[in-house]
Amino acid sequence: MSPSVRNVIAWILQALLAAMFIFSGFNKLSHGPETAKMFGSMGFPEWFAYLIGGAELLGGIGLLVPRTVRPAALGLIVIMIGAVWVHATKIPGGLLPATTDKGFQPNGMPAMVLLVLLVVVYLLRRPVARLA
Predict the structure, then answer these.
(1) C-alpha span between 113 and 44 (Å, rounded)
(2) pLDDT digits (tens, 9 = 90+) for 15-39
(3) If you placed Cys at 21, which of 26, 60, 67, 109 could pair as Cys (CB 3.0 to 4.6 Å)?
């Protein structure tokens, strides 16, 4: 893959992921008490909701700054590994999508897709050796 194509793909993914994480983090923080209660019901301390919301917001912004793309992606990868684990162990329905009487329930699929896309961005933004 040529460096220019790789760069375009990386920027598109970074912009989409940044928008998703900025929205998700802002949503967690703006609905703090409800989010904290939900985290508490899963056995986490309620302050953890604010930590995750802030980390998602900052990580989303970090995906848009060239110097911080890889550290931001790495931090968000850790968060998404945790999200996948929570979906697999603590949320009814687990990871796989299902159709219920309430309609289609994606369950943990969005978390897994975001995790894979973050890994792709992390790999696309790795340093490349320059040819002399």
Answers:
(1) 24
(2) 999 999 999 999 999 999 999 998 9
(3) 60
Residue 131 lies in a domain: no
Domain span at 23: 3-124
- Domain annotation covers residue 24: yes
The per-residue pLDDT for range 88-102, each reduced to its tens digit, is: 887 766 666 666 666
Q: How many CA atoms lie within 13 A of 110 on its CB side?
A: 7
Among 20, 1, 10, which Cα is nearest to 119's?
10
What is the reported pTM? Answer: 0.85
pLDDT average, residue stretch 71-89 = 93
For the chain, how many structural domains are there in total?
Answer: 1
